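Hey,
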Amino acid sequence: MGVKKKGSAKLAIVLSLAIAATSLLPMNVQAAVKAPAKKVVYMTQKYKKGEYGYADASFRVTGIKKEDYVKISSVKSSNEDVITVSSIYGDYYFDKDQVSRNGCDFSCSATKPGSSTISYKIGKYTKKTKITVKDYENPVKKITLDGVNDGKDFSKLTKNQSSVYAEWDENGNVTPVFSIVPTKNPVLTIEPASGWSVQNIYLSSMGISESIYYYDGKAPKGKQTITLYELTGGSYGTLSLSFINKDGGSMYVSYDLSEYSSYY
């Protein structure tokens, strides 16, 4: 009997320790909610005081339970001169002041460089995401594409803004940005600016399109030389590139390859 009692005592101690350890684990939804503590975004063009600028400062929160919905009226921007929250999209809606379940997207716009902290309530918990808005900087140090501008570097076109467009007049006539020579298997050479790396590449030319994607930060660093399928030239074309900075911020750069209108 003495042995049985001794074993029971050991078992009781083990169970007590297990219960004590379990009580130390987080027992609320806070552990499941995933909200970015901070985010860096870049303006799409060089900011000029007094002018309207733009940067997409949106972010997503996941792991929200139904009983711990996002309370819309709790959403605040600490500096609305820099960032405003324009809308909130939840995976599910419940009523005019409740949104989410599973995940929720905060659609935010920045109008100038600076920072703002977005605060919001998820159930009884308050979350905060600090967003830093940086002025535009050209992520392209050098870029050439066979068949475009005689193979010359056109990186300076995005010196002050991220997108370059052909000019269209009221009659549908186009003043192209580039001279295009149809080229089979054109070679694209990209040298990112310091701190930047290419995340994906997209070329569309008269219905022929191709994409190259690098996920999870696995894009090769530094200069890249890539052979594409075909550059046809014509009424429509675009070369788009996405870059990511070492600070986590991203930039989308687009070049309009249109040569003439397809409607006139």
